[in-house]
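Weekly structure sync, notes
Attendees: PL, DS, HV (note-taker this week)

Item 1: Bifunctional protein FolD
DS walked through the input record. Source organism listed as Elongatibacter sediminis. Sequence as pasted into the shared doc:
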Amino acid sequence: MNSNKPATTQAAHSARILDGNAASAAVIERVHDSIERHVAAGGRRPGLAVVLVGADPASQIYVRAKRRDCERAGIEARDFDLDASTSQETLLDLIQQLNDDPAIDGILVQLPLPAQIDEVAVTNSIDADKDVDGFHAFNVGRLALRQPGLRPCTPRGVMALLSFHGLEIRSKHAIVVGASNIVGRPMSLELLLAGATTTVTHRFTHDLEDHVRQADVVVCAVGKPGVVRPEWIQPGAIVVDVGINRMADGRITGDIDFEAASQRAAWISPVPGGVGPMTRAMLMLNTAEAAGLQVELPYHPHSTG
Ligand SMILES: Nc1nc2c(c(=O)[nH]1)N[C@@H](CN(C=O)c1ccc(C(=O)N[C@@H](CCC(=O)O)C(=O)O)cc1)CN2
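Item 1 (cont.): predicted structure, written out as tokens:
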């Protein structure tokens, strides 16, 4: 070992990790505590209907994990696994039964649905008070009008992940890359609600690079590896990667090169282990709230306005 080597090499900067596994475990524990207190006091255990249509491999993984989360949280999961050829009418009939069932507090229909079924018709057929995915037009409207009710799980999970790590968003310039109904649009509403100056980019946006370069907070939800290049990220930015891309070898990766972006960002969420577990934890939280329970959270939610 050469002890005379000049100490000129600087340690490479590495971002701090937005740890979705730790944050989600903390939320699920609080949901569990609240439910067990309620049940010990003679209350009914919350019930979640978990509906999977078809056998999409990714959906099967997510639904299996959600059913496991229900066990951890003390929520009664009722499983409905329907054939890929199920008609829209059959699915709407099932949702009507679940809407009318007093033992069911939340209804989750895993997306995407097979092509013969209209997703909008299905999500809007769920009783808005049981809409634990927060996709019903009424619940999205509430979020838009600063009267949040049941909120979409992924955007709520991103906000919870930031809060869990003590990150303040108010007055920051945030960019949401991708404008899907499930993530991008409600994500922009969450950021607005938290007081961020919010830009949403989408497939018709010119000069994505210019927008990303100006952002203090980058939330990327496209589902395309490399869509945001690491060199566009402002030094010290917060990077939240919502993308989940399955590689040929079975591994999953996000939309942004994690190693390279870590050299510039102050904080970054990994894939796996970032937003995905938070999406699931928010489903548990929404179900407890739909059942009328108050859950004391392990973080201070962003103040709204
Ligand atoms: N009804 C819904 N459908 C879909 C939603 C949703 O919120 N409600 N969102 C996405 C997928 N999604 C939720 O279901 C989801 C995505 C990822 C994860 C997750 O736990 N990811 C893990 C990795 C899991 C793996 O190995 O693949 C991680 O990132 O660490 C959970 C849920 C579309 N559909």
